[in-house]
Amino acid sequence: MAAGQDIAQQGLDLAGQALDNLADFAGLNGTPTPAWRLTLNGKPLDSALRRRLVALTLTDNRGFDADQLDIVLDDSDGMLELPGRGAVIAVALGWRHSGLIDKGSYTVDEVEHSGTPDILTLRARSTDLREGIAAKREKSWSKTTLGAIVRAIAAANQLQPAIPDWLAKRRVEQLDQRNESDAQLLHRLAREHDAVATVKNGRLVFCKAGDAETVSGKPFPVCTITRASGDGHRFNIADRNAYTAVKAQWQDLNRAKRGEVIVNKNTRFERRATVTKLGRKTKRKKLTAIQQKGVEPSAGNVKVLRHIYASEASALQGAKAAWEKLQRGAAEFSINLAYGRPELFAELPARVQGFKPAIDATDWVINKITHTLNDGGYTCQLELEMKLNWVEI
């Protein structure tokens, strides 16, 4: 092991002993005792160097916002050396009575020393967000599918693709990547299809935002959060009535055709078979919008998308995604859990109990979760957004 890595291991090992001390403190008076495991480059940290930890914070983000691990160490005696970067830390969190849950691996990419009193902060981010996926590329796709694009990008970055079958079949008529990284392209695609693109544990995941299901189509189990489990909450509902519909415009240059589509709360979606010029139905189906009531939006309450789409189908998909995002962001809820829950992660569906009836009746999805270990024990902070139940048949 290189000298820099030796120093990094010594510095990071300090976290473990301090965490053990915190666990012993938390175990007094019969209270639950936090448990954890930290490894550096696959090796357990030395317990003899675990007495300087000030705090450990792990933030699980949605999408391509990298998950982040922060370890803060006490250097008031000035004995710590600045560690080298590039070390890989694996983290597991939990409670001694229920065991540990793996929370992934992170690469140290930032070291900060500040004072007084002097402290050393090691900041590490998801190891899966590698350099290749952030490199600028030039490429075009024509008459393909979302699945084909995701699989191609995954292969180019040595990742395993994970995308639901129904989403993978969505048609993409034209997609140009101009001086744009794979991560930026995936983020743009996700925004257009109201999806989430992320890299977790060697897998490139592209799934429906707020769908609360695995890429195989199985729903995640719903977690329950009670008011008694938290020591602070905040509910916010924004006025989204300013937009009663979303309009998207399209222009097909090859056929010299143009038009617009409108999506609102009365829009229902069906997948219908396409028809040939001779009037015969084909096996291929396309998304079709059906207005259950007449659309009569005024000029002032329609959100008009700036992007001009290449086809009616892509415009419809873009309008649908924008409308879903508006509705899902109408309500937000956050809560601090006094008792940390390591099994929780971003995109997990949630129900809350013990608050106002309107809050309890809402279906929620975890948007962000922050795990914290410090002298106050093990806690979690959750940020949730409303889960959208959109009917598509």
TrEMBL record:
Domain of life: Bacteria
InterPro entries from the UniProt entry: Phage_Baseplate_Hub
Pfam family membership, one: Phage_GPD
Protein name, entry field: Phage late control D family protein
Organism: Chromobacterium rhizoryzae
